Write the structure tokens for this entry.
Amino acid sequence: MEKFVNLKSIPSYLSLQNIDTDMIIPKQFLKTIKRTGLGKSLFYEMRYDESGNLNKDFVLNKHPYNKSKILLAGKNFGCGSSREHAPWALLDFGIRCVISSSFADIFYNNCFKNGILPIVVDESLIEEISGYSKRKEEISVDLAKQEIKYGNKLTKFKIDEFKKKCLLNGLDDIDLSLAKINDITKYEEKLSNLKPWI
């Protein structure tokens, strides 16, 4: 998993509330177990018309928002079913950070496991930062300092220390297990000697 330290980008602003995982990546794209190739189908029903052509009015289809690494979103982002394809699609599109006033719990945790930083802030702050999106001005996120910088202002955000450590070091669940490989090997050898029939 790629480490997350600092991020600087013009943010995209999607003001809709209750964006569920089916809106993020519709069910017809869940057949793959690969984490790549899903970015083109991110927000499919909003990004494309019925003929499969790009909807020129949708924010992520416009320059420079089609290159955004930071997404500002309405409350309760990632609600609905618990598909891990949702953070996969965001990441494959290039989004490394989602800022919202609230997230669905499973989606929130899945973000950390896939290298995306979900940040919870007050709705009033999202509204203020959205002005930078509209003016096409960059904002920055510093995970180590837990700061969002916009213009000459900055705000702190809260994050679980263990989740922060994992993102800063690029550690997913597999990496965390491999860090204990010596202990696992010793346990398996001991078990094999004590219970060779297993």
Remarks:
- The radius of gyration is 19 Å.
